[in-house]
Amino acid sequence: MLILVHYGEIALKGKNRKFFENMLVENIKKAFKRINLDLKVKKVNSQLLLKIEKEEKERDKIILILKNIPGIYDFSFVKKIERKKNSSDKKVLEELRKKIIEELKEKYKDKETLTFSIITKRSDKSFTIKSPEVNSYIGEELYNNNFKIDIKNSKIKIYIRILKDEILYYYEKYYGMKGLPLKQGKVLCLLSGGIDSSVAPYYIIRRGVKVDFLHFHTFKENSLVLNTKIKSIIKIFNKYQFESKLYLIPYHEYQLSTFNKIPERYDLVVFKNFMLKIAEKIALEKGYDAIITGDNLGQVASQTLENIRSTSFNIRHTILRPLIGFDKEEIIKKAKEINSYKYAIEDYKDCCSIISKKPHTRVKVEKIKEIIEKIDYKKLIEDNYKLLEEYTIKEYEY
Q1: At 324, is the secondary structure helix, strand, or coil?
Q2: Which of 126, 161, 252, 255 is the most exposed place for a label (fewest CB within 10 A)?
Q3: CA–CA separation, 320 and 348 (whole Å)
Q4: Rg over CA atoms, the chain
Q5: What CATH number does the domain containing 211 carry?
């Protein structure tokens, strides 16, 4: 089985291109080990040619894996015609034409309702027959065999890639995540378990960045979270990045320490600032390059511009908000695409939902500073940090 992988953006990386190529190859091999598949990888003209010693029955699993590897633009199952030294280009092309006609007759019995076109790319310029001539040569034989040709609006495209040692041909493309391969750094995501925070990591992972998670919960023990939708959501992201760390902190210490000390209308913004302070402390100690949140501008009361600024008070670490300009419909659509939606909408008692029901929509930074100065904020953070537990989750779900 041969698969041609096109990696798109990596081809623009200039002198760093080899580094990105190698990372993508490493990630592909690692992903295939999940289903006990070994493969050989050959680099061919800004693409990768994968050779797998497996039968066609593994095809569906392979499609699922390749669709969820950051850095892959598209991929196709291909067949090849060898370019032997003693064969003329014309002879090789005749062999190719014969194979294509045979396969199309077998594959498309009802050819009366279908239209076809040929797209040739001559990567090896030593091949003496140019791409338009190849298209005409194959197209003429299609016409002679009663296949309808429609160059602009064909339903079936025949792709031909002319390489130095072989000619590859295929009829279908599958699209991947695009972006960049993993190994561009790591970030820590505040995961509530809602729709937004179960989508935000996707956009960071597809830029090649590893994401781990921090969750504040209402259980008596951290380990109880591992039986909830939080773990299920993380398993969704492990299909892209193999494994994730989950940091857990119970909410009760914060609740007891701040009871009756924070005006109700400001409680949510202060709590969000508190979570970011904990995330910053973990990031600094564990070497995370940034913190990410599922904030979406104006979607809820705590996400007005003024409140976003106030929740970020005294946070010096970089905060990324990949969903900041999305609307809710776009976020839900993506959640459904990556399969996190079914878990995100499950009933779950998250911390923010039990704080203020009517938070102030325009909390001044000065007000947050005033509130924080009245409580022993440093001790609050230290006491809660002591309750932190770390888990590594390796399970994954497609």
Answers
A1: coil
A2: 126
A3: 25
A4: 27
A5: 3.40.50.620
Cα distance between residue 217 and residue 353, in whole Å: 11
Q: Are residues 198 and 170 in the same domain?
A: no
Neighbouring residues of 20: CB distance < 8 A, sequence distance ≥ 6: 7, 10, 13, 71, 180, 181
Residue 112 has pLDDT above 80, yes or no: no
pLDDT at 55: 66
Residue 349 banded pLDDT, cuts 50, 70, 90: confident
Residue 255, Ramachandran bin (φ over 0: left; ψ between -120 and 50: alpha; else beta) = alpha
Q: What is the pLDDT of residues 209-260, one digit of tens each?
A: 999 999 999 999 999 999 999 999 999 999 999 999 999 999 999 999 988 8
Q: Is the pTM of this model over 0.85?
A: yes
Exposure string over 218-231, b if 16+ CB within 10 A, otherwise e:
beeebeebeebbbb
Contact in structure between 235 and 243 (CB atoms under 8 Å)? no
pLDDT at 356 over 70: no
Could you tell me how many residues make up the chain? 398
CA dihedral 71, 73, 75, 80 (to 10 degrees): -100
Question: Any residues with CB less than 8 A from the CB of 83 and at least 6 apart, and which?
Answer: 92, 127, 163, 164, 165, 166, 167
Q: What percent of the chain has pLDDT over 70?
A: 97
Measured CA to CA, the distance from residue 396 to residue 321 in angstroms comes to 25
Q: Token match 């209402």: residue?
A: 218
